[in-house]
């Protein structure tokens, strides 16, 4: 594994964007020496040309060319999960062998789907292992215990802390003193047979007289989720996270029998929860905006006229995300909710002045013809002030552009579409609704002509 890790490090050294890295082998929960992890620290954003999400696919292609290495570059984990891949999910069921079989079938299906990228399946039942079998009768005869044997083997292989050292003359820190065998002295199971155990009587006993080693195949770790066996998947898809989740659900729909299911984890799980919360927030924002406008304008219909701009903004926001290649994620959805309050302001300026002119004696048509040109300047000034303020984030400048970019693009797209269409759609809807109400008022005032029918 060390030679493979050196090959990976050689690739990392060719990238000037990488400031430093830290390699660790067999340091995860499984303890497999065939697995390693490299944490990378990038140079500051101002000192490099490529962003994090641009470096990851480049590393993925270069590391795929190393024979015998399966590499899965991913961003650091911020939301759930032990790893940083944006797409994490598990296949769960009551039988471990069945879970493993279904997981490999699902993995093969997803490998044929475009945009899913390379998927790492974290469940393998055929890993080579060495099992220590203790002769408990022989151990008991020597006045030893299975714990004594296990601790002796662990001390040689992994070591354990036996004391602490206080560096009072130096930095004042306390350091662990670890007992373990010299590096390279015990490298095979046969070497471990030379370990000597000391009985309570003081005699030395070789390990191979009380235990033996057996080679077998098995899993390095057995994961569980909701009290069921779980096979965990990790991937960095090239498509939007929501689209990747749909492909996973479609691929597993006709594959999984009763009692087996797929659960989203990590960022995908949080994304599903956030969609629910933001959908509720979205509806509440619309209701609250309507209530505030109804109290301000003393009308139930004029708030609806003002809020006509909101669907126009949503269309523009989604169009902007599509144009710039952003998906619908947590940050872009926050931007769409933000639009609910921002775009309403332009319509308020227009409708408020129109109502004021009508109170001065002008009819609907005259009021609209005067209000639209008068409100053009403030509407454009506020819209372009917001757009110019969001433009650096939308173009990817500065720290945090990866997260702020989708939010800024959604707001800019929504403001552009709503600003342009507000001056066209809102006056048209205002004229249609208010003229209809005036017509109904005239009918009620004048009354309907009645014809008298004489009856004999």
Describe the structure.
Among the domains are: 1-73; 127-218, Multidrug efflux transporter AcrB TolC docking domain, DN and DC subdomains (2-Layer Sandwich), CATH 3.30.2090; 299-446, Multidrug efflux transporter AcrB transmembrane domain (Multidrug efflux transporter AcrB transmembrane fold, Up-down Bundle). Helix content is 51%, strand content 17%. It is built from 13 helices and 13 strands. The protein has helices at residues 2-12, 52-63, 96-111, 136-141, 146-157, 189-192, 241-253, 266-297, 302-306, 309-324, 330-359, 364-394, 401-446; strands at 18-25, 36-42, 87-93, 119-121, 127-134, 160-166, 174-179, 196-198, 204-206, 211-218, 223-225, 228-235, 261-265. Strands 3, 4, 11, 12 and 13 form a five-stranded antiparallel sheet that branches. Strand 11 and strand 12 form a beta hairpin. Helix 10 (309-324) runs antiparallel to helix 13, helix 11 (330-359) packs antiparallel against helix 12 and helix 12 packs antiparallel against helix 13. The longest helix has 46 residues, at 401-446. The N and C termini lie far apart (112 Å). Residues 449-456 have low confidence and may be disordered.
Indicate the topology:
Elements: H1 2-12, E1 18-25, E2 36-42, H2 52-63, E3 87-93, H3 96-111, E4 119-121, E5 127-134, H4 136-141, H5 146-157, E6 160-166, E7 174-179, H6 189-192, E8 196-198, E9 204-206, E10 211-218, E11 223-225, E12 228-235, H7 241-253, E13 261-265, H8 266-297, H9 302-306, H10 309-324, H11 330-359, H12 364-394, H13 401-446
Antiparallel strand pairs: 1-2, 3-12, 3-13, 4-12, 5-10, 6-7, 8-9, 11-12
């Amino acid at each position: 594994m060390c030679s493979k890790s050196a090959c990976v490090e050689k690739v990392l050294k060719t990238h000037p964007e990488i400031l430093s890295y830290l390699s660790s082998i067999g340091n995860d929960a499984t303890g497999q020496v065939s697995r390693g992890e490299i944490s990378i620290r990038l140079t500051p954003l101002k000192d490099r040309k490529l962003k994090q999400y641009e470096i990851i696919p480049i590393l993925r292609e270069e590391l795929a060319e190393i024979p015998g290495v399966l590499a899965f570059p991913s961003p650091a984990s911020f939301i759930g999960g032990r790893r940083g891949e944006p797409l994490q999910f598990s296949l769960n069921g009551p039988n471990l062998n069945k879970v493993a079989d279904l997981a490999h079938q699902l993995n093969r299906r997803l490998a044929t789907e475009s945009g899913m990228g390379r998927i790492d399946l974290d469940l393998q039942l055929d890993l080579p292992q060495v099992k220590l079998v203790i002769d408990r009768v022989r151990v008991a005869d020597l006045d030893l215990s299975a714990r004594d044997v296990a601790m002796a083997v662990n001390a040689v292989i992994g070591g354990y802390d036996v004391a602490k050292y206080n560096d009072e003359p130096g930095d004042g820190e306390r350091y662990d003193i670890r007992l373990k065998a010299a590096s390279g002295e015990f490298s095979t199971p046969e070497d471990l047979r030379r370990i000597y155990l000391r009985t309570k009587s003081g005699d030395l006993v070789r390990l191979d007289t009380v235990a033996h080693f057996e080679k077998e195949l098995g899993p390095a770790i057995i994961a569980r989720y909701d009290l069921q066996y779980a096979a965990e998947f990790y991937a960095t898809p090239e498509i939007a996270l929501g689209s990747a989740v749909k492909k996973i659900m479609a691929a597993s729909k006709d594959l999984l029998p009763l009692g087996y299911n797929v659960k989203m984890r990590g960022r995908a799980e949080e994304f599903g929860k956030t969609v629910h919360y933001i959908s509720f927030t979205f509806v509440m924002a619309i209701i609250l905006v309507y209530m505030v406008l109804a109290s301000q304008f003393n009308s139930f219909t004029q708030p609806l006229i003002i809020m006509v701009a909101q669907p126009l903004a949503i269309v523009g926001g989604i169009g902007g995300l599509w144009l710039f290649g952003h998906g619908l994620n947590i940050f872009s959805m926050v931007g769409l909710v933000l639009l609910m309050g921002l775009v309403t302001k332009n319509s308020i300026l227009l409708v408020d002045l129109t109502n004021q002119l009508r109170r001065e004696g002008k009819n609907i048509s005259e009021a609209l013809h005067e209000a639209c040109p008068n409100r053009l300047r403030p509407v454009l000034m506020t819209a372009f002030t917001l757009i110019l303020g969001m433009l650096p984030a939308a173009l990817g400048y500065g720290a945090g552009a990866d997260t702020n970019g989708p939010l800024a693009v959604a707001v800019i797209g929504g403001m552009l579409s709503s600003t342009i269409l507000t001056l066209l759609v809102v006056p048209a809807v205002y004229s249609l609704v208010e003229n209809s109400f005036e017509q109904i008022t005239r009918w009620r005032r004048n009354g309907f002509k009645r014809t008298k029918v004489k009856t004999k």
